[in-house]
């Protein structure tokens, strides 16, 4: 069965969408079959992969809201994609009274999960129903964290959410795959936050090597390409390779 990994942080601006695409591509370069799943109504991952969300008739929304099969778009930069668009924003209202709504995504993934080694879910930057659906469907949660104070202080809330899902039996087997310090720069604050995160997670979960802030990531996204295709010699790719190789041991 696949490792189903939610990239989740309720704080915005952590670079999780860019990380999902680039980490997925890095895993394909190690020979893995990867599915990207866009669970954010803003559809940034869908756009980064070169699609126009408003033109899509079938998205993850139909699977979540109407129990339709997952619409998998095959072989985009060697990855498969389940796209999203603004239709997904109706989930909070449409699922308000639904029975067992937390398992909607898990059940939708079940028929195709065995086709992949890794499923990477790009969660919205909120602690709403779409993030809960994503975490319940996942075997692991991966936490992108900008090495800034605002991101660091939100960690307790995030960890509390994961703990509650485990203890309440909603996602009892959910594990923390680790923390990825992202958008890291050379300021004193970034260095202090990285040290604090490493200390806080000691014995709890891995803290992966920091991914440097680099304009090349944004440039690649604008071209709808993973960094590995946009600039195959960029030094940040070595960090992504290290992280993706670590995920193989989950």
Automatic annotation (TrEMBL):
SUPFAM superfamilies in UniProt: P-loop containing nucleoside triphosphate hydrolases (SSF52540)
Pfam families the record matches: AAA_31
Domain AAA: 3-176
InterPro entries: AAA_dom, DNA_Partitioning_ATPase, P-loop_NTPase
Transmembrane spans: none
CDD domains: ParAB_family
Family stated for the protein in its record: Belongs to the ParA family.
Matches recorded under PANTHER family: P-LOOP CONTAINING NUCLEOSIDE TRIPHOSPHATE HYDROLASE, PARA FAMILY PROTEIN CT_582
Protein name stated in the entry: ParA family protein
């Amino acid at each position: 069965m696949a490792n189903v990994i939610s990239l989740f942080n309720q704080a915005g601006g952590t670079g999780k969408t860019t990380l999902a695409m680039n980490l997925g591509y890095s895993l394909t370069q190690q020979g893995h079959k990867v599915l990207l799943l866009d669970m954010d109504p803003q559809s940034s991952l869908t756009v980064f992969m070169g699609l126009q969300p408003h033109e899509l008739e079938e998205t993850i929304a139909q699977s979540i809201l109407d129990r339709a099969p997952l619409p998998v778009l095959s072989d985009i930069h060697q990855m498969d994609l389940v796209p999203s668009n603004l239709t997904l924003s109706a989930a909070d209202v449409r699922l308000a009274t639904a029975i067992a709504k937390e398992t909607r995504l898990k059940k939708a993934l079940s028929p195709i999960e065995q086709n992949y080694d890794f499923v990477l879910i790009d969660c919205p930057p909120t602690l709403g129903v779409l993030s809960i659906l994503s975490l319940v469907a996942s075997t692991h949660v991966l936490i992108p964290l900008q090495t800034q104070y605002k991101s660091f202080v939100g960690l307790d809330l995030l960890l509390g959410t994961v703990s509650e899902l485990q203890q309440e039996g909603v996602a009892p087997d959910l594990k923390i795959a680790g923390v990825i310090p992202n958008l890291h720069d050379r300021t004193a604050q970034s260095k202090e936050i990285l040290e604090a995160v490493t200390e806080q997670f000691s014995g709890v979960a891995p803290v992966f090597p920091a991914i440097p802030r680099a304009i090349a990531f944004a440039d690649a996204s604008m071209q709808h390409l993973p960094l590995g295709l946009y600039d195959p010699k960029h030094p940040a790719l070595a960090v992504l390779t290290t992280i993706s190789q670590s995920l193989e041991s989950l």
